[in-house]
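Handout, page 2. Input:
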Amino acid sequence: MEQHYIFPVIGMHCSACVLLTESQLGDIAGVNRVKANLAKNEIEVWGVFDNLSKNEIKNIFNEALEPHGYSLNETKESIKNNASDFQWAVPAAVIAIAAFLGLQKLGVGNLITTSSVSFGTAFIIGLVASISTCMAVVGGLVLSLSATYAKQKKNLPHYLFHGGRLIGFFLLGGALGALGGSLQINALGTSVLSIIVALIMIILGLNLLEIFPWAKRLQITSPRIFGKQIFKLKSVNTVGPLLIGAATFFLPCGFTQSMQLYALTTNNFWTGAGLMFTFALGTLPVLGLLSFGSSAAERLRRHSGVIFKTMGLIIMFFALFNIINSLAALGLINPVFSF
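Output:
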């Protein structure tokens, strides 16, 4: 007889988390169907579990989810946002923002402008993304690959994954740049897109802070079917990791979506390709650590709450910074930041 359970879940903050949790639990023996709900922080499971109690089933599920930074509980009351994370996150964010403003004052920290993003900037944004959303979104796929190929004791799938990611971001970023060129986006369109990017980043930042549950409903995501197909590719031999790496371009990550919009405004294949390639290159160090089971990567996952909240605060600052600069470029307000 099929059984049905609902478990509150800790750790979901984006649509890719939904895909990852569903994928991991769907592979467990006895599970027939899984449905995760980001807005409610819940996972529904249907399956045949013999005489196991709900608590025993929860423990089995947690064994599959905890390496990815998620955990299930039996009651909603047991889920509480860890406010203590802010004791470290706020000072860290303030120091990072102060350092940025100091570099701006010196003229060497112009990382975010209203009209363009340099390749160096794209690399830094990728690095920031890799220790926040990409660690949760793409890192889950990396860990899944690690588990899938662990018994074979082969590193080739990991190299193929990261190589496919770099190649995919280069080619698809170039396609976006070429598309922008055909659309002939002008200065006004670029400023409007910059504001849209900033709004996406604000929503991303709010979700990383995990204090406004309603913000999860505002996320703009790619069709869910895309993500499900990407996770299924991990069962494909040899070319599977290569295809997965390239397909991560379509995963619902706020940073990636923002850089894709920037690539569209470049109006050039090579510039768009270089922008997305250097962004993916920036994510490589941390994702590489996750691939090969480094103890450093384990420490990153252990402190993910503080990291996500710190990055959430920094992201929101940069988003507001970009909105102000974009509005100033449009002549709607007077410049606020003048260095």
